[in-house]
Design goal:
Blueprint (H helix, E strand, L loop, with lengths): L3 E5 L5 H13 L8 H6 L4 E6 L4 E11 L2 E9 L8 H16 L3 E6 L2 H6 L3 E2 L7 H7 L5 H7 L5 H4 L3 E6 L1
Parallel strand pairs: 4-5
Antiparallel strand pairs: 1-2, 2-3, 3-4, 5-7, 6-7
Length: 167
Protein backbone atom coordinates (compact mmCIF):
# COMPACT_ATOMS: atom_id res chain seq x y z
CA UNK A 1 0.00 0.00 0.00
CA UNK A 2 1.28 3.46 -0.88
CA UNK A 3 2.42 5.76 1.88
CA UNK A 4 0.35 8.58 0.38
CA UNK A 5 -2.72 9.18 -1.73
CA UNK A 6 -3.68 11.72 -4.38
CA UNK A 7 -6.99 13.56 -4.14
CA UNK A 8 -8.71 16.70 -5.37
CA UNK A 9 -7.68 19.86 -3.55
CA UNK A 10 -10.04 21.65 -1.20
CA UNK A 11 -10.08 25.33 -0.27
CA UNK A 12 -8.58 24.43 3.12
CA UNK A 13 -5.49 23.16 1.24
CA UNK A 14 -4.58 26.56 -0.24
CA UNK A 15 -2.35 27.69 2.67
CA UNK A 16 -0.54 24.34 2.49
CA UNK A 17 -0.08 24.69 -1.29
CA UNK A 18 1.48 28.11 -0.68
CA UNK A 19 3.77 26.72 2.04
CA UNK A 20 4.78 23.80 -0.18
CA UNK A 21 5.75 25.93 -3.17
CA UNK A 22 7.32 28.84 -1.25
CA UNK A 23 10.86 27.36 -1.28
CA UNK A 24 10.53 26.80 -5.04
CA UNK A 25 9.34 30.38 -5.53
CA UNK A 26 12.35 31.62 -3.53
CA UNK A 27 14.64 29.58 -5.81
CA UNK A 28 12.80 30.99 -8.86
CA UNK A 29 11.77 27.49 -9.93
CA UNK A 30 8.06 28.32 -9.69
CA UNK A 31 6.33 31.65 -10.11
CA UNK A 32 4.78 33.09 -6.98
CA UNK A 33 1.07 33.79 -7.07
CA UNK A 34 -1.29 35.70 -4.86
CA UNK A 35 -3.47 33.60 -2.57
CA UNK A 36 -6.60 34.69 -4.46
CA UNK A 37 -5.23 33.02 -7.61
CA UNK A 38 -4.94 29.70 -5.78
CA UNK A 39 -8.50 29.97 -4.50
CA UNK A 40 -9.73 30.81 -8.00
CA UNK A 41 -7.97 27.73 -9.38
CA UNK A 42 -8.40 25.30 -6.47
CA UNK A 43 -10.58 23.01 -8.60
CA UNK A 44 -7.60 22.52 -10.97
CA UNK A 45 -5.37 21.13 -8.20
CA UNK A 46 -4.60 17.64 -7.00
CA UNK A 47 -2.99 17.11 -3.61
CA UNK A 48 -0.72 14.30 -2.47
CA UNK A 49 -1.05 13.65 1.24
CA UNK A 50 0.14 11.12 3.76
CA UNK A 51 -2.40 8.92 5.50
CA UNK A 52 -2.25 11.25 8.49
CA UNK A 53 -3.21 14.24 6.33
CA UNK A 54 0.17 15.91 5.74
CA UNK A 55 0.24 17.65 2.35
CA UNK A 56 3.40 16.46 0.60
CA UNK A 57 2.77 17.49 -3.01
CA UNK A 58 0.52 19.37 -5.37
CA UNK A 59 -0.07 19.92 -9.06
CA UNK A 60 -2.65 21.57 -11.25
CA UNK A 61 -4.14 21.03 -14.69
CA UNK A 62 -5.19 24.19 -16.51
CA UNK A 63 -7.21 23.95 -19.73
CA UNK A 64 -5.82 26.31 -22.35
CA UNK A 65 -7.74 25.35 -25.48
CA UNK A 66 -10.02 22.70 -26.94
CA UNK A 67 -7.32 20.03 -26.99
CA UNK A 68 -4.54 21.66 -24.96
CA UNK A 69 -3.83 21.86 -21.25
CA UNK A 70 -0.96 22.83 -18.99
CA UNK A 71 0.51 21.01 -16.02
CA UNK A 72 1.18 23.75 -13.47
CA UNK A 73 2.58 24.18 -9.99
CA UNK A 74 3.82 20.59 -9.70
CA UNK A 75 5.71 20.49 -6.42
CA UNK A 76 6.79 17.86 -3.93
CA UNK A 77 8.01 18.41 -0.36
CA UNK A 78 11.78 17.93 -0.09
CA UNK A 79 11.67 14.81 2.14
CA UNK A 80 9.35 13.13 -0.38
CA UNK A 81 11.43 13.69 -3.51
CA UNK A 82 12.22 10.49 -5.47
CA UNK A 83 9.49 8.54 -3.67
CA UNK A 84 6.93 8.51 -6.50
CA UNK A 85 4.87 11.51 -5.35
CA UNK A 86 5.54 13.64 -8.44
CA UNK A 87 4.90 10.63 -10.67
CA UNK A 88 1.55 9.91 -8.95
CA UNK A 89 0.48 13.56 -9.20
CA UNK A 90 1.44 13.79 -12.87
CA UNK A 91 -0.37 10.52 -13.66
CA UNK A 92 -3.47 11.86 -11.96
CA UNK A 93 -3.32 15.16 -13.86
CA UNK A 94 -2.79 13.34 -17.16
CA UNK A 95 -5.80 11.13 -16.45
CA UNK A 96 -7.85 14.25 -15.69
CA UNK A 97 -6.69 15.73 -19.01
CA UNK A 98 -7.81 12.64 -20.91
CA UNK A 99 -11.22 12.74 -19.19
CA UNK A 100 -11.61 16.36 -20.29
CA UNK A 101 -10.80 15.39 -23.88
CA UNK A 102 -7.41 17.05 -24.03
CA UNK A 103 -4.88 15.62 -26.49
CA UNK A 104 -1.77 17.66 -25.62
CA UNK A 105 -0.22 18.74 -22.34
CA UNK A 106 2.26 21.58 -21.99
CA UNK A 107 4.62 22.39 -19.15
CA UNK A 108 7.27 25.02 -18.55
CA UNK A 109 9.91 23.49 -16.34
CA UNK A 110 13.44 23.26 -15.02
CA UNK A 111 12.79 19.55 -14.34
CA UNK A 112 13.45 18.43 -17.92
CA UNK A 113 14.62 14.91 -16.98
CA UNK A 114 11.50 14.24 -14.88
CA UNK A 115 9.12 15.32 -17.63
CA UNK A 116 11.16 13.55 -20.33
CA UNK A 117 10.77 10.29 -18.37
CA UNK A 118 7.01 10.89 -18.53
CA UNK A 119 6.84 11.34 -22.30
CA UNK A 120 7.28 15.10 -22.65
CA UNK A 121 9.63 16.60 -25.23
CA UNK A 122 11.04 20.11 -25.68
CA UNK A 123 9.10 22.21 -28.18
CA UNK A 124 9.71 25.20 -30.39
CA UNK A 125 7.47 28.17 -30.95
CA UNK A 126 5.03 27.23 -33.71
CA UNK A 127 2.95 24.52 -32.04
CA UNK A 128 -0.54 25.94 -32.55
CA UNK A 129 -2.27 27.13 -35.68
CA UNK A 130 -2.20 30.89 -36.31
CA UNK A 131 -5.96 31.08 -35.68
CA UNK A 132 -5.58 29.43 -32.28
CA UNK A 133 -2.58 31.63 -31.47
CA UNK A 134 -4.71 34.71 -32.24
CA UNK A 135 -7.30 33.51 -29.71
CA UNK A 136 -4.81 32.43 -27.04
CA UNK A 137 -2.90 35.72 -27.18
CA UNK A 138 -6.04 37.43 -25.84
CA UNK A 139 -5.85 35.48 -22.59
CA UNK A 140 -4.80 37.35 -19.45
CA UNK A 141 -3.48 34.10 -17.96
CA UNK A 142 0.29 34.16 -17.36
CA UNK A 143 0.59 30.44 -18.14
CA UNK A 144 -0.86 31.00 -21.59
CA UNK A 145 1.62 33.85 -22.10
CA UNK A 146 4.42 31.45 -21.07
CA UNK A 147 3.13 28.82 -23.48
CA UNK A 148 3.10 31.35 -26.31
CA UNK A 149 6.57 32.55 -25.23
CA UNK A 150 5.44 36.17 -25.18
CA UNK A 151 8.07 38.81 -24.49
CA UNK A 152 6.28 40.11 -21.36
CA UNK A 153 6.93 36.86 -19.47
CA UNK A 154 10.47 36.19 -20.65
CA UNK A 155 12.16 37.65 -17.52
CA UNK A 156 10.20 35.12 -15.42
CA UNK A 157 10.89 32.12 -17.66
CA UNK A 158 14.61 32.40 -18.36
CA UNK A 159 16.20 28.98 -18.23
CA UNK A 160 12.92 27.07 -18.31
CA UNK A 161 12.21 24.50 -21.00
CA UNK A 162 8.89 24.48 -22.82
CA UNK A 163 7.76 20.85 -23.14
CA UNK A 164 4.80 19.04 -24.66
CA UNK A 165 3.29 15.57 -24.39
CA UNK A 166 0.81 14.09 -26.80
CA UNK A 167 -1.69 12.00 -24.81
Amino acid sequence: MAEFNVRWARTADVPMIEKLIEPLVQERILLGKDRVVFYEAVQEFRIAETHDGEVIGCGALHVMWEDLGEVRTLAVAQPWLSKGVGHALLDSLQNDARELGLKKLFCLTFEVDFFTRHGYAPIGEDIVDPEVYAELVRSTDEGVAEFLDLARVKPNTLGNTRMLRIL
